[in-house]
Write a structure and sequence with these properties.
Layout lengths: L1 H17 L6 E7 L1 H5 L18 E8 L8 H7 L1 H8 L28 H7 L10 H11 L8 H14 L2 H7 L10 E2 H12 L4 E6 L5 E10 L20 E2 L5
Antiparallel strand pairs: 1-2, 1-5, 3-6, 4-5
Bound molecules: 2-acetamido-2-deoxy-beta-D-glucopyranose.
InterPro entries: Ribonuclease_T2_eukaryotic, RNase_T2-like, RNase_T2-like_sf, RNase_T2_His_AS_1, RNase_T2_His_AS_2
GO biological process, one term: RNA catabolic process
GO molecular function, one term: ribonuclease T2 activity
């Protein structure tokens, strides 16, 4: 009896895992390279060379409008190992690893070969783990892209198109917010500039430089499920920014 229930659940889970992911929106996350690099941790430049002093893509992340406990019963019955091997490591606030954490879900270079030059410019790695930006894209694909209901080429092409359509570096510069070693800017002026420039309000994420000063690190824009248009964010992240933030040189 127990076995039959578990088997039934298994079958329905397999059906669910093959179906479209139900998420509500994407976070399109861009990072300021100066703020990535000047923390105590530091950074490394990719094999393709020092990136431009421009916001770079961190990721395009499917997200739920509300956190919830997915498949709680199935997980309890199957146990974590079996559960995760079937449905992947879906989290409570966003889906992730929708194809599981397997190598056969890795991104293949030929799938995005015509995008590689643009990705190297717009989505460079700054991690010291590897100078190969491809590993960054592949990680993002496995963790987030596999939950996007998009093919790899569309997933990366749409992220690039979003970045090109809303140039944060230019939008901020237009409001007098330019990289500087000493200047600080009010968070509200940064936020207002982005709202003016894109038509939508962003969530801002800050980190601290090696001296402990607050600086603009990442900008989260919300995007529709097709990854084509900005939308009003269904939820607002709590900002860790101080009232005044830096935008360090890179
Ligand atoms: C964004 O704008 C900046 C500043 O005007 C410029 O240097 C950069 O090349 C632009 N980026 C893209 C991807 O067009």
């Amino acid at each position: 009896m127990k076995l039959a229930i578990a088997f039934g659940l298994l079958l329905s889970l397999l059906a669910v895992s093959a179906a479209a992911e139900r998420f509500d929106f994407f976070y399109f996350v861009q990072q300021w390279p100066g703020s990535y690099c000047d923390t105590w941790r530091g950074c490394c430049f990719p094999d393709s060379g020092k990136p431009a002093a421009d916001f770079g893509i961190h990721g395009l992340w499917p997200n739920y409008a509300q956190c919830h406990g997915r498949y709680g019963l199935a997980r309890a019955v199957l146990g974590d190992d079996a559960f995760f091997s079937i449905v992947g490591r879906r989290g409570r606030c966003w889906p992730q690893y929708c194809g599981g954490d397997y190598d056969d879900n890795a991104l293949r270079p030929w799938e995005i070969r015509d995008l590689i030059a643009s990705l190297e410019r717009s989505w460079p790695t700054l991690s010291c783990k590897s100078g190969r930006s491809f590993e960054f894209w592949s990680y993002e694909w496995k963790k987030h892209g596999t939950c996007s209901n998009l093919e790899p080429h569309d997933y990366f092409a749409r992220a690039l198109a979003l970045k090109a359509a809303h140039n944060l570096t230019a939008i901020l510069a237009g409001a007098g917010i330019v990289p500087s070693a000493t200047e600080t800017y009010s968070v509200s002026s940064v936020s207002d500039a982005i709202t003016q420039g894109t038509g939508f309000t962003a969530n801002l994420d800050c980190n601290r430089d090696a001296d402990g000063e607050s600086q603009l690190y990442q900008v989260f824009m919300c995007v529709d499920r097709e990854a084509k248009r900005l939308i009003d964010c269904p939820l607002h992240k709590r900002s860790k920014c101080s009232d005044q933030v830096k935008l360090p040189l890179f």
